[in-house]
Amino acid sequence: MNNRAEADRFESMVLVHLGSAFALARWILGNDQTAEDVVQDALVSAYKSFSTLRSPYAKPWLLQIVRNRCLRHIEEKRRLSYEPLDESFQEDTSLRNESDPEGILLRKLDEEDIHDAIEALPEYMREIVIMREFEDMSYAEISQVIGSPIGTVMSRLSRARKALADNLREKLQESPL
Amino acid sequence: MTCSEANQAMNAYIDGELGPVEEAAVRNHLSTCKLCQTEYSTHQSLKSSIRKTSNFSPSPEFEARMRKSFGTPPKKSRWVFPVWSFGGGAICASLVWGAILLLQPRPQTIESEILTSHIRSLMPGHMVDVVSSDRHTVGPWFSGKVPLAPQVIDLKNQQIPLLGGRLDLISGSPAAVLVYGLRNHVISLYVLRDNQVPTHRSTIRDGFNFRYWDAKGLHYIAVSDCDANALAAFQSLYESRAHS
């Protein structure tokens, strides 16, 4: 990509989603500096493969690259530090199938509680909550980013919301407002 | 619909991901089942709490660095100044103006692109990406998808119903397209920001009529195989409603 028109296109189609790319990386990696490094790396990759983009809507395409880079970063970090296998991206089957609590006064919780609850989710659930609630992406778009069927998006989102509700209910019980 | 079925569909329901039939079934069930209403309230409460939470955002320094690295390079105009300084202003101006005229996209190019896009949209399954006659659904749908905010006008009472919207690329730049129905004809209204557009107000190409106008920094181009007067009336209605 060496002409001005292509650079203009990259700016108007891809760079406009820089905020979303950073937010997703930050939620997955949990650190500003690492998120910046990974997003920069993802933008280099996106820049090189921009000519292969066929859709006029680049956000799912960019977030897919960012997500892959994040996962690669996590994997490399684990390998270098000889940490035990990070199971955060494996399906969590420990969630109980009980019905949601009634009448949780979630609106009474402060922002920090909700932030903590989202960060406590396993990555494979957290990324879907972020894309759905903060990025307002459809199930089909999220499915494209994570490379899994829409049914997987729906089941992970459902379990993520259940886990969030359980977590926040516990917070309410610990310190009633 | 049973409570179990309603519960299964609850997430998709609050996310607006159900089809009209399923959505109506859940809505009907909720209107009669207090247990599921509580469930629904909890879901909505959680969703709204998350959405009110602030998201992470990149630092201004990082954003500036990325824009500098990957955005449009600054315009190179250094060659102009030495020529001007040598007193060859008039010659230089003529050359530059000539070059601008030569390099400017010919109006036919954007017309032919739009015509191709419009004709392609008439094929089954290509007309709209978002199907809705509600401007409050179609307008927000473009948010974040294209770097512009088209004004979506409801012309249902004028017998020109909104059919939906779609995304397209015109000369490499993203475009929002609003689709209206006029009797048996389809009107595609292209909303562009970055493209060079013709300066004339109307034209006809291959039997399709075009209307052009600008509003609030955006270019609007309507194309349809309806007659020229009907398309002019559409533009007039659209502009008058947009200003009201």
Q: Would you mind describing this structure in some detail?
A:
The complex is a heterodimer of chains A (177) and B (244). With 177 residues, chain A is mostly helical. Chain A folds into 2 domains: 4-81, Rna Polymerase Sigma Factor, Chain: A; 101-174, Arc Repressor Mutant, subunit A (Orthogonal Bundle). Chain A has helices at 4-13, 18-29, 32-48, 59-81, 111-119, 123-134, 139-146, 150-174. With 244 residues, chain B is an alpha+beta fold. Chain B is built from 9 helices and 7 strands; from the N terminus they run αααααααβαββββββα. Chain B has a 7-stranded antiparallel beta sheet, sandwiched between helices. In chain B, a hairpin with a 2-residue loop joins strand 5 (202-205) and strand 6. Mean pLDDT of chain B is 79; it is low at 74-95 and 97-108. Chains A and B meet through helix 1, helix 2, helix 3, helix 5 and helix 6 of A and helix 1, helix 3, helix 4, strand 2 and strand 3 of B.
Approximately what portion of the residues of chain B adopt beta-strand conformation? 15-25%
The proportion of residues in beta strands of chain A is under 5%
Mean pLDDT of chain A: 80
Main pleated-sheet profile of chain A: none
Radius of gyration of chain A: 18 Å
| Number of spatially distinct domains of chain A | 2
Strand sequence of the main sheet of chain B, in spatial order?
A: 1-2-3-4-7-6-5
Counting DSSP H or I runs of 4 or more residues, the number of helices of chain B is 9
Order of helices and strands of chain B: HHHHHHHEHEEEEEEH
What is the CA–CA distance across the termini of chain B?
A: 44 Å
Shape of chain A: globular
What would you call the structural class of chain B? Answer: alpha+beta
